[in-house]
């Protein structure tokens, strides 16, 4: 990812047969999750970071399950487009 504001792209297999329990993100939305991380080093970096995330979304659109999972970052306080319960 040379010359990109993206720091990490991870494809994580989360498929499993474990019984789901009530709560936030206790069942998997799809067999795979794409996790992308960018470095917002200054307010001026925002347009480039938005463009990089857009390119990732365009490249993965054909396999998009249409759902999002919360950040794995500790202390995340909200997930605006989190997965809805099944």
* N-to-C CA distance: 35 Å
Structural class from helices and strands? alpha+beta
Number of strands: 2
Kindly provide the radius of gyration, computed on alpha-carbon positions and rounded to a whole number of angstroms. Answer: 15 Å
Strand content: 15-25%
Query: Kindly state the mean pLDDT as a whole number?
Result: 78
What letter string, H or E per element, gives the SSE order? Answer: EEH
Number of helical stretches of at least 4 residues: 1
Helix content: 10-25%
Q: Biggest β-sheet, characterized?
A: 2 strands, antiparallel
Question: Which overall shape is indicated by the principal axes computed on the Cα atoms?
Answer: elongated
| Poorly predicted runs | none
